[in-house]
Amino acid sequence: MARFGLPDVDFIEVDPEEMESIAVARFENMTGTTLEETDPRRNFIKSMVFMATMLANNIDFTGKMNLLAYAEDNYLDHKGIGKGVSRLEPRAAETVVRFECNPIETFTIPSGIRMAVGDLEFASTEDYTVSIGMKFIDIPMTCSELGEVGNGYLPNQITNIVDNDNLPWVTKAYNITKTDGGLDWEEDDPFADRIRQSNSQYSTAGPEDAYIYHTKSVSSEIVDVAIDSQSASVVSIVPLLENGELPTADIIKAIEEKLNTQTIRPLTDKILIELPEIVRYDIQVNYNIPRSKSSVETTIKAQINAAIDDYIKWQKSKLGRGIDASELITRIKEAGGVRVTASSPSQFVVLSKTQVAHSNAVNANYGGLVDD
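User: That's the sequence. What structure does it adopt?
Assistant: Structure tokens below.
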């Protein structure tokens, strides 16, 4: 399906049955014979039709890979290079590890000291000196593997010191922050969207698209950006992260540094990085399941709970997305529910472009089996 809301296009359309029918008819007209289904010559024609269909599909695929609305993987990378835009690279997760110690002399915790959780390792990148009297020292550590694989380990989950022989005065070590910040390669859709907006980066007038492009180029965690200006020459940048998360201090700092460079910010603009305003809402829905599907009742209930979770994620994944009860009801019905009603949200709630909807209490009341 084409990106950016564009209509789908086909460079070549092939109907194998129609192609076979034409080929058989032409052969029969030329030879004056009738080809039965079991005739080896008809099977040969079928094999040629199969090859022609594959070739046509390849031609169609090749044509689409030359369009930004369809390009993917390496094809999309080549489209980006043509615009001077590169795919955002992966990043390793980080955490802070506390080393408790009881030194009788000053010693050094060397760069490269490793902590492990399962098969995953985190390592320091600098030397740290521990003086007599220090009870602990907190050291930032980075995952050895790039990507999201290192995210999500809670405090005290990483406790295994791999290089224990190099730490004579350390009694124990453990992470004191949740591991976070790991990113995979930028996915195709956000990369294609940045390529589409890339022409705006060359403007010196500070257009909205340029600020959006440069902000999204800071990190693939940024999924949406709103640009606002309440007074002359003051530009508010409101970024939103994956899963509706608010930008961290590190992300805000990186955006400020990016946008305030001389080649990006117009001389008269003052840049403000602001957090999205969170609008809270409750979910209160009632639903039933058709009696004819009683054998899969448990499965449908699980599907409905998953549909509600997906709705919550969808609702908070874009700035300015109004709170839409009809979307929630539709998703529950698609998951197998019937007689679905929602008392909250009871109606559509309009949000401004700098607001994002976050759910509070979620109550999905199952009313039992009903006749279809």
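The mean pLDDT is 90.
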